[in-house]
Structure formats: structure tokens, C-alpha cells
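Ticket #4471: structure output looks truncated?

Reporter: J.K.
Steps to reproduce: submitted the chain below (430 residues) through the standard prediction queue, then opened the result file.
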Amino acid sequence: MSIFSKNAVLERLVTDHMEQVCAEEELAPLAVRDALEAGSMVLLGNPAHPRLKPLLIGQPARVKVNANLGTSPLDHCPATETEKLRVALSAGADTLMDLSIAGDLDALRRSMLAHCPLPVGTVPMYEVGQRILDAGEAIAAMRPEDLFAVIAKQAEQGVDFMTIHCGLTRRGAELAANGARALGIVSRGGSMLARWMLENGQENPLLEEFDRVVEIARRHNVTLSLGDGLRPGAGVDAGDAAQWEEVIMLGQLARQALNAGVQCMIEGPGHVPLHEVDAQIRTIKRLTNNAPLYVLGPLTIDSSPGYDHIAGAIGGALAVQAGADFLCYLTPAEHLTLPDAADVHAGVMASRVAAHSGEVARGAPRALQREKAMNEARKILDWPGMAAAALDPSMLHARREAHKDEEVCAMCGKFCAVKMLRESAAASLK
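Returned output as attached by the reporter:
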């Protein structure tokens, strides 16, 4: 049976917005429906999210970029998060994730959904963990029913996609926690679930009752972002048994969800050495039935605190070239502190550069057209044309401001190579 016959909410969303998404992605309606049917593309959109503009993720649609926002116990100002949301939108983020773990999480989420016309994602485990730790209890005290209740509540509130760590098995947690890894488990949600399983001697309730998660998701067309709770947190951990155990399970669960009419993305690796990125991405895509792949970075080195957005952009470009569909940004604050508004802008732009670089490498027509437009504008010193082709026109205008009335840039001035050649060619024609 068709995914659309099992998911009436998705069918309505596709019917109502097909013209819009096809125009934006320059795709034919049949190509979109076939990709959604195969599970190689998802259409993010929960009808309960006000003002939402649905979004396609998966090839051959444009590679998208996500910006993470949210509070921490050391910094939880709602106004700051609203400003960071504004900056992420202006920088060109395609989706936002609320990763808040402090303050009034329901109020923060409602505000983000109300102010953001883009798809919004969450990690329900964070809300459950916040309640437990704020009550002075240990994560091992979590009641699985509370986790399912939070998933249902967030879906009803309008969340469009959720990171669900359902592929993290008890065996996988044991493999990651046995001391063989340099950095054990670095996923926040993954570590919570792993500790619950190891201390209670039980299997992951999200895995054992995955059908319950699927049923909630189908009612609201929430896309399940199947979380990489055992992603490598150090380059030397990439490709170990714990990581691949989870990836294989995620592929099985994605197929199960698709057969039940629910869309899924797969979350990918965190830290992967440069020479292993291509193989990691291609293998994950193969093991997960070519479902859209959502990657954090990957960071190609571990020793770049303050510059992890650069390490992540290097890995992200390679990942896109190899087949990744969706980049989760990293900011200069990664591993150090909560990002501020400037960090958010830098992170979004670094990931957008990475996405575009990877798409140029794999010959995406729209990406190649942007490159052609920039080259043509530069050849004739057409600054408005360069701004139109730039990923960040505001940066071009800001850096040109002091010399904006000059035809040439301030680096070369009268020694402008482009102008010299142009004048030489003009003289030869006389």
C-alpha cells in the first residue's frame, strides 16, 4: 500500500503544497511523490504548526541546513533565544531545532513555533530529563510512560520533526560504555537512555514500543529523525561496533516506519577523520535504505575548539558530495559554551558554504548556475550581480561599504587584474 493511503495528513499536505515545493526545488510532482513513496525524501510539516511553510529534504532536492537553538542550565534567557531565532532565519537556515534543557520548555517551544515559519524539531528526551534532574532524581528514575507522553504532547503542539533515539539498544550501550571508546557516548539524549538501560537492566523502551512512536507520528505527520545516540565523539571512535550496531537498527526501524506510513530521516556521524567521511556516508545511506541523511558536521578533527564550525564545514562538504541530504550546523561555541547570536550566524553560513560546495561537487544544476552567475559578474566587475550570486549578500555589501563607489575592490585598486585585461582587450580592438 502507498504511504499516502496510510498517512492521510501527509496526503493533504502534499496536495495543498505540491505546487509550492515543486517550484522551489525545480522538481516535477511525480518525482516528489515517487521519492516520498520510496522514503528517500521527506516533506516536513505538522498541520498544528502555525504559519508553517513545508519543506522537502532528500535528493534531488536542495541540501538543507539546520540551526540548533535552546537554553542550558547556565544560560536560559527566552529573549536571547528569540534573537538567535531571528538571526538564524536571516542567515538562511532551513529548519530550527529547539534543544532547550532549562527554563519553561513549553513556553519556549510555543514561542519558537509561533515565530518560526520554518520546520521546527525537538528532542523529547531532553524535556523528560529536565523534569527528572530538576526534581533531584537520577535519570534511572525515568518512567517510560512519561517519555511517550512528552512525544505525544510535542506532536500536538506542532513540532515537525523529532530526534528519537530508538536505535540505541542495551547491547549497543554496553559496547559504547565498555571503555574501548576514547569518548564513550557523547549524545546527550543517547547518554540519558544508555544510563537508564544500564542501571535498570532493561531494553530501550523507544525500541520495544516503537509502534507507539510511529502511531503518534502518523497522526500529526511528524517526521522521525532517528537519532544517532552512539555517534562517534572522537575521530578514533568512528566506525566502531557500537556505531554500526545502531546504524543497522536505524535502517530496520526506518523501513518499519515507512511501511506504516511515517516519514523518517537518519541522523549521522559526529566526528569522522577526513579520509573516512566518504565511506561513512555511503555506508550509512546503504544500510538505511537511502533515507534522507541528517549529519552533524562531521567534524574532521577533534582539536579545533573555537573553530569547530570550520572543521564541521570541511566534513559537511565531503558528506554532501558523498550523498548527505541535511546538515546540522556547528558554531564557534561547539564544545565550549552556549552559542550567541554571532555564533548562530557564523554556524549557519559555514554549513551553507559546505552544502553548496558539496552540491557543486556532485553537479547539482542550481549550484552550478550560482557559480556561473558569480563568475560572469566578476568578469565585468558587476557588483550588484556578485551580490545576487553570493550566499551572503549582506557580507559583500558590508565589506565593500568603505569603497562602494569604486569599480574595483580595495585590495587591488588600480592593479585590478580583471580591469587590466578588459582594458587591454578593448585597446586591441581599436
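Triage note (M.O.): checked the attachment and the full C-alpha cell line is present. The mean pLDDT is 96.
Status: closed, working as intended.
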